[in-house]
Write a structure and sequence with these properties.
elongated; mainly beta; 57% strand; Porin; 14-stranded antiparallel beta barrel; two-stranded antiparallel ribbon
Amino acid sequence: MKKIVVVWSAVLLVGAPAKGQFAEDVLRFSQFGLGVGASSLAMGNASVGLAPDYSALFWNPAGLAQQKSYEFSVGASYLNFGNTTRFLGTRTEGSQSGLNLNSLGLVYPVPTVRGGLTFAIGFNRVANYTAKTEFTGYNSSSSIIPSLIPDVDLSTLSPAERDDLLDNNIPYQLYLADISGNRLVTSISGNVQQSAVIRESGGMNHWSFGGAVDVARDLALGVTLSIVSGSYTYDREFMEEDILNNYQKAPSDTLGLFDQFRYVSTINTDLSGFNAVFGLHYRKQGKYRIGFTVRTPTYYTIEETFSDEGHSRFDPNLNGTVDQFDIAFDGKTDYKIATPVVVTLGGAVQFRDWLVIAGDVEYTDWRNMKFVTSRSDLQSENRLIQNIYRPTFNLRGGAEVTLWDLGVKLRGGLQLRPSPYEGDPSDFDQQFYSAGAAFRIDENVWLDAGYAFGSWKTFRDNYYSPGGPASRTNEHVKTHNAVVTLTFRF
């Protein structure tokens, strides 16, 4: 079962609204994108056993011990996110693109009598949150407005609590709800045209330092320490309109009939944290390589600022006036989370001098991510995490072909990322198909290019009624990722 909640929750008994944190927030910051390096992307990210270049700092730091030359590399990445949304029989296309620095790093091998001792330092963009979703459709059965009205008996509140609730309730302040029988009620319950545009942006960065040392012949150990920083921005504009003039009760001379409700929610998130990767790498030159890594939990401190804006418009009243009302709230919050441990086993086999085949298996138990807090509401989300998530095995594979002495390498790969949600069907699993090439520009200069096409299905619950989800979109996501890396060895 999958649940994507995109609803702001109002705190009933305080003077300002607050954004609720959900299990999905922890999942977002627990997942990586398609990693670091064009060569890795082209081979389906099957890099834990190979770890052939600077990107080993992210994939398997023990692989750095293979490096006998100084290396400087810089890479750029491009992501195009496309989403086909089906909502109440209507299909809508949405897309968003982003161009970022993918990596910038230096590998420094230390001269030794035997074996290898190598250090690396650099910047890596490990996740990109660029996304866009659009939908529109006529909803005859529900409206978002009732979901914004708390189900509370006003007579049970103190005068101050009652005033706080009314002052901070958007439908009430916009004349879309009224008091009846000591409760807030609204006459708007469906038969509205609904549309929304949801934009997401930002990313996660690792500022990393690591090293590797040969502890025995053909066996190396390594570690990477990373300071994590990043940002995430969410912006949703949700619109409801009475396009068929269903609300046809007699107008008053002070306020006309309901015509439109616009609801804008924004979140700006700054995140910081730290993690480590411990790696082992065994290499039998000219034959095979085996890698094993343990990625520790990332411990994040997350700070959010948010705003909630509402706008209502009514048809002309008896005086011919179009009434419009606006209201806005903002606030901030902070919390801490911990991501799961990630364990990966990878291998690569060398066939002659021209063919390499590699594969990785990555295990993550998503039930181990959590909010680090004593707050009862977030402890409840931790219990939910235990119920709705599951362990997964990500599978990655790739091949590289060297074209004689032409200074050209061709690569291809694929990877499967099962959905972390318990009970999701197989078409909710993320699948990526990749290809790429490397070109020797000069004796010590290589240009690598990698491309990956991704596809999967999902859904989004836009708001809830007492009986459960009241508005859902079914989505088919397609992504195009490209990375170009320029490497100098000297």
